[in-house]
Amino acid sequence: MHLLKLLISFATTNSRVGKVFAGEELRAQSDTVEQFTSYTFRVNAVNKLGPGAFVETADILCDDKFKKPSQMNAPVVSEVNKSGCKVTFEAPAEDGGAPIQAYRVEYKVQGKRQWMEAGITKNLELLIVGELQERSTYVFRVQAENEAGSSENGKETDPIVAKDFVAPPQAPTDLTVADITDDSVTLVWKHGEGLDLTVFDGYEIEQQDEGQSAAIRVAKGIKASCDYTISHLVTGQVTTFRVIAVNDAGSQKSEAVATEAITVKQTRVKPTVAAEEAGKTLTVPAGNQLKFVATVTGKPTPDINLLKDGVVCLGRAKISQLHNQASIVFRNCSKADSGEYTVVVSNDSGEVTTNFSVSCLDVPDAPTDINMSDLQDDMSVKLSWSEPANTGGSAITHYVVQQRDAYADKFQTIADKVEGTRAVAPDLTPGVTYFFRVIAENEFGRGDPAISGLLSVIQKRSPLQIADMPKRTKMDFSRPCDLSMPMKPMVVKERRQAKFSVAFSGKPEPAVTWFKNNEPIKRNNKYSISNVFGVSTLVISNCRQRDAGMYKCEATNPTGAATCEATLSVMES
After folding, report:
1. Which among 446, 508, 514, 443 has a CA at the least distance from the CA of 480?
2. Phi-psi category of 97—alpha, beta or left, where left has phi over 0 and alpha has psi -120 to 50?
3. Which of 57, 69, 211, 396 is the most exposed place for a label (fewest CB within 10 A)?
């Protein structure tokens, strides 16, 4: 009996798939299945007598023949330079049942979204040449491809910087502990021999406390100097520090150089001070800068103070200290800076001092204490004075003496090369009132003048002699002293002039004396006293705070005395 046809159907509803007739290829295809659904297929033969028994398959899951490869792990990037690198990777854990046909390598700039294809290869590595930008940061990934398609995006690498390889730096040397306080430690070291500073990124410092298994980084990027102070430590804390040189943006590090265990506690050492110019006189032209340098040691770090002529010098000199070197700088020096200086260095352990002198080279100050003698028979006056308090750092070469009529505008020189402190003003005119002034001169020029008080020239006359005059009883014309124009309190600003005047009378003519705070006042460049026509005038030039006080005028003659007084107040300008 001949086979007429085969009937093919699938469960679960026994739907007929199709028919295969005698003489055709014994195979069939179903286009009505759904993915991920299980089916059972069966076949039976049919002839003229009818259908035969069915033969069934096991459950068949409707799915693709092959799957995509599994996700790739992050590749390894090596041999990095400024424009390329080498990317190596491993095959995926699962190939999806079909051979891997190719690997796709991709990269992107860190922080950007767009991925760029570096290349496709059948090998487990890819060399990238000339595609990267120097100093840019990249990440890489790989996809595997088979007959079913590409795997999902591979895992990304850590960021890689495109730059040429830099060798690890040389380790630092000579690490020492320079200072310890109750809450800080200062370390000092030297660069390792041959350290390439062009690629050097700095030093890191790590701290490991006693009893701790791991160190912590307390500083990084130390590049300007080979020293560092670790602060905010705990008193009594025992710890160790180590210094590491770093380059290539931190990717290359030297071996660590460590200190011994340190106890954080202030060390105490008595201060010392040493200076090459100690005990010497330092000269400086006016307007220039003067610098005194000393080496100062001691723990804790000593305080430095400066005394001038035994008094604390505030504000005029700038004192700075770096490590063990102290500097005292005077800017724009003047004669006021001349004097004896004492440098006081002190800490909790003691105090030491050193000294130096300053002489500012300038024109001299004004002479002082100008005195005038009585008018001589030849109508001359003898003048004397004291040399300036400050000669400007140079010997006085000579003095210039000048005079001026009180009602004239200009002084006239009467002696221009006076070597001592005495001179004579000759040929004075009777009835004229004079001022005199004296100027000191040294190799740097003439200084400020000192001006005398007023001198009124009254020519002496011989007494009139009358012979054989009858004797008469002497009459008493004396009259007690009287001050008819009392002084008034005065307030002036600094550097201004103050003037007190008092009108006096009496027979014989009273002698007038001025006092400040009950001390007699002498004529000099500060005080000018004149007694003209019964009026006594005291002029105080260039007033300062020290000139304030009680001023008194006293007139005396044989019949008695009269006084009046007033206060002078000087306001800051």
Report:
1. 508
2. left
3. 211
